[in-house]
Fold:
Amino acid sequence: MIEFRRPEGGRLVISLQGNWREGGNYPPFAAVQNQLEQSPAPLHVAFDCSGLTGWNSVLITFLIDIIDYAQRHGIEVERESLPPGIAGLLKLAYAVPERAGARQEEARPPLVERLGQAVYGLWISTAEALSFIGEATMACGRLLRGRARFRCRELLLIIQECGIRALPIVSLISVLVGLILAFVGSIQLSMFGAQIYIANLVGIGIFRQMGAIMTGVIMAGRTGAAFAAQLGTMQTTEEIDALKTLGIPPMDYLVLPRMIALFLMMPLLCLYADFMGVLGGFIVGVTMLDLNFLEYYHQTIGAIRLNDLWVGLFMSAVFGVLIAAIGCLRGLQCERSAAAVGNATTSAVVTAIVAIVIATATITVLCNILGI
Amino acid sequence: MTDYFDSKAHIVVEELTMAYGDFVLQRDLTFTIRRGEIFIIMGGSGCGKSTLLKHLIGLKKPARGGIYFHGRNYWQMEENDREKVTRTFGVLYQGGALWSSLTLAENIALPLEEYTELSARQIRKIAALKLALVGLKGFEDYYPAQISGGMVKRAGLARAMALDPEILFFDEPSAGLDPISSRLLDDLILQLRDSLDATIVVVTHELASIFAIADNSVFLDAAAGTMIAAGNPKTLLAEAKDPVVRNFLTRGGSMPVSNPGAIGEGCR
Structure:
């Protein structure tokens, strides 16, 4: 696509040919550099574009390489010999000199600085979380005094969204978890001929821990993420600013109904998940381990204490508040871009699941100490 | 008190410095917005016009200096008083910022339900009236997602007027509107000023709008980091010496053309 001519002393003519739009093998800049370095070194570079039938940005960048090289080595480039379209684009490209400091160096800060930044970041996010908890507590106080400002219809909508609409996924996951527990347990227990204790394993496991934890994880992914995305989007579209300028605290209007809804719905969903999980174990027990229907039923009833149920329900209510608060916090912290909404959603789910695990551990230890 | 607190002063901005953390966006802003006037905040992209609006409506706290409403410093008031002052604002956000889960009528009704003792029937009637004022009669039960961008903006204006505000703030009202809609919006702003007797503050860089509606203005410059002109834009056009202001008001009339690097650089 290029040829070189040296018509007279001190002049290099680069002849550009063919259709650069068709692609193919573009000439490397090294070929031109070779020519420019050959002695006698040229003083002028000119272009012959008579054979050029089409061009694209590759040609422009190629020419920029030549011009930059020539400038560095004091060689004059005759840009007038280029077609007007190309000359115009080159003129635009060189119209504004590079701004000093515009190029971002990817220098890695030293370890101490990074550590300091990380600790500072942690401090800031802890302070934000604490102030959120404080505001949420005050909003709860206003709620108890009947002075919280939110629309009941909004609350009912959220309850419907995170309650009834979550039933299918909660059913599916809980039955499967019950099935899995029973399956895994049956292999071990049948070695001792103790298949009937599958009912105990599944019953206690689901009622005391697994029902609440699985519901929590499902709701963190389903509803916590939705809260973060909703509030994050409201942040980007200035809807939250609009609330604030009307003097309606977002804490009352947006966060409180979401926390109330999950606080009320989580125990109900958990209870439902408990029964579904036991049903899963029951299916394995009766169909695969040849246990009697009534036998399994009585064994389950005998195994589960009321305390197991209360502990599970209490945990789920705690999870509900945690999931809603974390989802809303991440949504309110969201910056104003589409990517930020994505990050807020991810962070809401991750933080909520971590919080669920930590809360479970804490409650389990407490129950152990209290002998519940 | 200094002379910019005159008897007609509605909002006074005194030596305001706006900053994000350590980064100072604008400093030493001092100007007066008088009752019943249409005041324009203008300047090139990125000079801090919208941030100044955020300060005026109480969403951001000044790094230094004060903002006074009827002579009282907004950030030194009791929280209750501050809320009362905030309630005299109506804000039209750039994208409308209608609450997407509520219908247009509910959007307008929400502030009314919050702050008035009116019956549901009266509120509904007022919502319908406000929508009619912006030419959206009959759209009460539409959701924001069901109407066009221009209509969302008008509905946003209807909501901004819900509480019969003393001050209406507009953030880039003509952004995203065609020239005719933009002109009609200007007419609407003029009409509202006259009928509501409200003070109107508009952030814009739309020259046609500026000359059509402005009584007074302030010009922010990103490079100078402060205001470099204030006054009626027509007077500024005739008298301003500063080349940056002149370039802005003449649409870059005296600037070298074909300089892509100057786009969004504050008319230098």
User: Anything to note?
Assistant: Chain B has a mean pLDDT of 87. Chain B touches chain A at residues 54, 57-59, 83, 86-87, 89, 91, 93-95, 97-101, 110-111, 114-115, 159, 163, 258-262 (CB under 8 Å). The domain at 1-88+171-176+199-252 of chain B is CATH 3.40.50.300 (Rossmann fold). The longest helix of chain B spans residues 179-196.
